[in-house]
Amino acid sequence: MQTAKIPATIVTGFLGSGKTTLLRHILDNANGRRIAVIVNEFGELGIDGEILKGCGIGCDDQGEPTGQLYELANGCLCCTVQEEFFPVMEQLLERRDQIDHVLIETSGLALPKPLVQAFHWPSIRNAFTVDAVVTVVDGPAAAAGQFAANPLAVDAQRRADPNLDHESPLHELFEDQLASADLVILNKTDLMDTAQIAAVEALVRPEIPAEVKIVPARAGSLDVNSLLGLNRASEETIHLRIDHHGSADDPDHADHHHDEFDSVVVQAGTVERDTLIAALQALVAQHTIYRVKGFAELPGKPMRLVLHGVGQRFDSYFDRAWRADEARGTRVVLIGQDLDGALLQAALEQALRG
Q1: Torsion-angle region of residue 59: left (phi > 0), alpha (psi -120 to 50) or beta?
Q2: How far apart are CA 90 and CA 175, in angstroms?
Q3: How far is CA 57 from the centre of its chain?
């Protein structure tokens, strides 16, 4: 019987930073490690879970399972630790002899600190430890100034002018995800020049402890040995990390409202890739959309196309063949603020018609 604590790596980061890509890279290079995966989605479609199901973790119909995928659809582990996360950890505890490591991907809207604190619960503490909190940063987005706001300066402005009492929650989320990090991955550096990389590092460094490294990466491709086995036992020091929102049991946690974000699904039939991306880019330009992700059916193609979008940047790739027993088509999740599903569906249809 296994008696050592099972290490768990928590992967956090803002919407579109590359968390799922990083997990897929780790699973593809597990080198025999038996890894259980917990994916926390924000949105009505389990996109991230679907993408990970082809990584040999026992979620598809091919081969023997080497792990297990658990999907939590609430979108915020920090707010549903007791209701959703704890039962999953109990299931993992029953299988501890079959597990070498646990990967937990939070949604882009989740706060990692309350999740790390949950590892103090007796039944979890005795069996699991937080190997590390890995925060993935979207380098080009940060370089564009999307997360450059200084909270102290904004607070000073709010004090001087009460009309400015509308600070975006995105900056606080970004800073809290950095504050909990044991390792920061500066992702998508292939899309940045040297000056931009230096600027983002200068932005991130004040938000993290001095000993935390900032590691550059392209598409989350790093040596897995540098990601797993860091032995930080983060639950022992997480109380020292400063955050904006407090724990889930703190009354101040009420400030962390996910109703500030909307998630809607838009659909289409068979579409050309370039036509679809152009239509989605038009929606992003006209509405407050932070993240786009979904699947598309292309004419004459037996493979399913995966779409990811942040701002006007879109990536796509074929992940697997359409199954005979599944409904084909194009289904895309849009995450942002003040989104009207019916309006966006109509706008997409009009954009596709050209």
Answers
A1: alpha
A2: 31
A3: 19
Residue 169 confidence (pLDDT) = 56
Check residue 255 and give its pLDDT: 45
Task: Let me know: does 333 contact 43? Beta carbons within 8 Å.
Answer: yes
The pLDDT of residue 280? 93
What pLDDT score was predicted for residue 206?
A: 92
Residue 284 and residue 309 in contact, taking contact as beta carbons nearer than 8 Å: yes
Give me the average pLDDT of each 10-residue run along the chain (354 residues). 81 83 85 82 47 43 43 47 68 83 80 84 87 93 62 41 43 84 94 94 92 90 90 90 57 46 85 93 87 88 85 80 88 84 93 86
Supply 308's token pair. Answer: 């990811």
Residue 58 near residue 69 (C-beta atoms within 8 A) = yes
38/89 Cα distance (integer angstroms): 9
Rounded Cα distance between 251 and 81, Å, is 16
Q: Which residues contact 74 (CB under 8 A, 6 or more apart)?
A: 40, 80, 83, 84
Alpha-carbon distances, residue 152 vs 92, 148, 155, 203 (angstroms):
42, 12, 5, 14
Question: Tokens 């940045």 map to which residue?
Answer: 192
Helix axes 151-160, 169-179, angle to 10 degrees: 150
Per-residue pLDDT, 37: 84
